[in-house]
Write a structure and sequence with these properties.
It contains 13 helices and 14 strands. By secondary structure, it is of the alpha/beta class. The chain has two domains: 244 residues, Type I PLP-dependent aspartate aminotransferase-like (Major domain) (Aspartate Aminotransferase, domain 2); 120 residues, Aspartate Aminotransferase, domain 1 (Alpha-Beta Complex), CATH 3.90.1150. The protein has a seven-stranded mixed beta sheet, sandwiched between helices. The chain binds pyridoxal-5'-phosphate.
Length: 388
């Protein structure tokens, strides 16, 4: 017989999932309502309203799709692209690559603009591509590139996209609830996110928000959306006034999202952003004080995801194994071309606490010293504490 499930306690400081607040965990054990129960319909209204506030938008079509962040990505491209449509995608990390892959699978013709993994995209290069290809109808970028720790400024690219009559699409999976996304202010036409990064709910829902330009594009489609499951024209009827059955909403995950959003606004959005900014900076100061190099230039660093270069002579896997076995701390390794080159340390949502910053820096100091690195005793935690 299998014994009852009892995983070891962990502190999730990787690129996601992040630790889930006890109140959100509690919501997952609440008995289910039916997905068309009037009380559940009220919960859906709360979720849509709170999501609009979190995204910074008045977009009516702001709903959580069933599935993880990648389902949000597929939703946007599947609904807004038709075979043969030309799209410009900024690729400066794994998730930009994934967008290009998804767009191609939707039949899109993709032009990629690349930047080094760790840099931001060049607006000049995007502008040149738009000049050279007047048939491009969409520009897509990643706001918070979780594979590198880069924050991409949005406003310039948004203006550029609109001056060429393009939709502006943004991946906000790691930014939502960590840094301001401000969909309306940034002129974002379609945006998607996930529940398991800075919103600190379990993985399983992908909030999306589409504005009027995106809806127009959907209305003009000549072909049906290839994905039945992600077809927003039908999902809209369930989340909108008709409330007609499409697929069974993941009830418990919607409970969790509602509670995660409620906690976000109980603390206050601005306070949440400040907490991420302050603690991200403290962590980064601490790491640099220990003599470690950060992978991203200071002005483009995300507070919620810090990429640290693995020092010469230090073994990637040994450090991560010791963090997990000795301290219960999970961090991420590098992806793609950054595998073995960086560690990725997340401070997302409920994981973003002074305790975690101090514990992580102290643990790292012990582990790195045992591996032969010279680090003056306590410099990391001290620098972090000083900046707190
Ligand atoms: C995590 C992530 C995704 C994918 O989300 P999943 O929940 O893993 O499907 C997409 N984009 C970015 C920027 C991410 O960080």
């Amino acid at each position: 017989m299998l014994r009852a499930l009892k995983p070891s306690p962990r502190i999730l400081m990787g690129p996601g999932p992040s630790d889930v607040h006890p109140e959100v965990l509690r919501s997952l054990s609440i008995p289910l309502l039916g997905h068309l129960d009037p009380e559940f319909l009220e919960i859906m209204n709360d979720i849509m309203e709170l999501l609009r506030q979190a995204f910074g938008t008045e977009n009516l079509l702001t709903v959580p799709m069933s599935g993880t962040g990648s389902a949000g990505m597929e939703t946007v491209f599947a609904n807004l692209l038709e075979p043969g449509d030309h799209v410009l995608i900024g690729v400066n990390g794994l998730f930009g690559q994934r967008m290009a892959d998804v767009a191609r699978r939707c039949g899109g013709i993709v032009t990629e603009i690349h930047a080094d993994w760790g840099d931001t995209l060049s607006e000049d290069e995007l502008a040149a591509a738009l000049e050279a290809n007047p048939d491009i109808g969409m520009v897509a970028v990643v706001h918070a590139e979780t594979s590198t720790g880069v924050q991409q400024p949005l406003k310039g690219i948004s203006d550029l996209a609109h001056s060429h009559d393009c939709l502006f699409v943004v991946d906000a999976v790691t930014s939502l609830g960590g840094i301001p996304v401000d969909v309306d202010q940034h002129g974002v036409d379609a945006c998607y996110s996930g529940t398991q990064k800075c919103l600190s709910a379990p993985p399983g829902l992908a909030p999306v928000s589409l504005g009027y330009r995106a809806l127009e594009r959907m209305d003009q489609r000549k072909t049906p959306v290839q994905s039945w499951y992600l077809d927003l024209s039908m999902i809209r009827s369930y989340w909108g006034s008709e409330r007609s059955y499409h697929h069974t909403a993941p009830i418990s995950m919607n409970y969790a999202l509602r509670e995660a959003l409620r906690l976000l606004f109980e603390e206050g959005l601005d306070n949440v952003y400040q907490r991420h900014a302050r603690l991200g900076k403290a962590l980064q100061n601490g790491l640099e004080a220990m003599g470690l190099d950060l992978h991203v230039a200071e002005k483009h660093r995300l507070p919620q995801l810090t990429s640290v270069r693995i020092p010469k002579g230090i073994d990637d896997m040994t450090v991560r194994r010791e963090l997990l076995a000795g301290f219960g701390i999970e961090i991420g390794g590098g992806l793609g071309e950054l595998k073995g080159v960086i560690w990725r340390v997340g401070l997302m949502g409920h994981s973003c606490s002074p305790n975690n910053v101090m514990l992580f820096l102290s643990a790292m100091e012990q582990i790195l010293r045992r591996q032969g690195m010279t680090i003056p005793e306590g410099v990391g935690p001290q620098a972090a504490w000083a900046s707190l």
